[in-house]
Amino acid sequence: MIDFSDLGKYKENNQIEAKKAQGGIPRSIWETYSAFANTLGGVILLGVAEKDDKSFEAVNISEPEKLIKEFWDTINNQNKVSVNILSGKDVYVQDVGGNQIIVINVPRADRPYRPVYVGGNPITGTYRRNGEGDYHCTKEEYQAMVRDAAVMSQDMLVLDEMDLDVFNSESVRSYRQRMRLSRPGHVWEGLDDADFLLRIGAVAIGKDGRKHPTSAGLLMFGSEYEIVREFNHYFLDYQERYDDTTRWTDRIISSSGDWSGNIYDFYFRAYNKLTQDVKVPFKLKSGVRVDDTPLHQALREALANCLVNADYYGRQGVVVIKGREQITFSNPGRFRIELDAAKSGGISDPRNSTLLKMFTLIDIGERAGNGIPSIFSVWSDQGWTEPRYTEEFEPDRITLSLDIENASDKEGDNTSDKTLLTPQQESVRQYLSRHGEGKASEIAELLGVSPSRARAILSEMVSQKILESTGANRNRQYKLKN
Length: 482
Prior knowledge:
alpha+beta; Methyltransferase, Cobalt-precorrin-4 Transmethylase, Domain 2; Heat Shock Protein 90; six-stranded mixed beta sheet; four-stranded mixed beta sheet; 33% helix; globular
């Protein structure tokens, strides 16, 4: 990580901390150890000072072996430090221009070991790193780490104070219908709803011996006003932002009151919106047109991954934003495994494993840890910018950014190839072919979208030279370009 032949080019940051350590092991080293372990990991340099411009210089440690022994003695004392996550190779002496310094590589702690704290008290002794400083974790951050450290998945909690009437019956009926289509003749098909929900993990036997919802069941099939009783910050938000002059042109929120507001229904409402503009190549299988492409599959995986890995006790909720050139999926919580491991595939550690089970029963989501690699693979095959994951703290949040490109950008102005039209655009083309011309209000009614969304679709078709427009404002008419 550090080029010790050019130490002066470095300054303290989110993953590098320098300490003179001329009087022994500084007490503040343990706060930094905790902060690095609970954030992204980092390097502690002992025998390094900051100059006036904040750059580093080595100041030499005369007896480094003595300090290293003192360090190991303290880190292995559980009254001082909750856990030692270092190995022998993580601490060593480094020569820098004739000066001896000590290098301590602190990895990011695996979730079963978090929070890493000091002083024997996890509430007052848990730290995180922000910029070039360490800070005391808030109670909310501490509780989030404790939840993630648990062996049992968050969503397996049995909600003994709730009954099965918290479930939205239409959501359950729709799910069962999808499962019948995905897995015809399944042994659970003949069960009544309560026993079926018990089998998939939406219901469990409580302390009183009766059936109660699990957290997963409540999130998947509950009504929004019931869900927020347990998950106070629960919020699902899908936005389309095609017009820079407005905050959004189309939106789905869980608290609107005109639909269930649960995860199951949100998934399909949001997915249908996400894929409305996806170009579908004309392909037949057994005489039937195939509308499912690797891009559709990647978007399904990204949306399901966002919902399954969200910490629903965390703040700010799940937010999916679709723009002209980018789609972002953002959820509360932090990575439970290293991102590089997730990108490599084969490792699955979902925050809500029961939710994932429910999705996989209707053929959505990857249990084998191959979901994220498949997203990266599809974007690579498209020749698009590599997907980007970012992790934020205060509060914990993960965002996946997917850059997208219009097929027209790659294909030029070839409008004779109708296979490049989205399903919505094809509906518009057929309508105008029959009627000659039409207004945005008519197209909005045809497609079942808002007028602003209809105008965005029509404007894109004009820019693609599929349509042409005449008139202005409310009198503007659209027709097929000759």
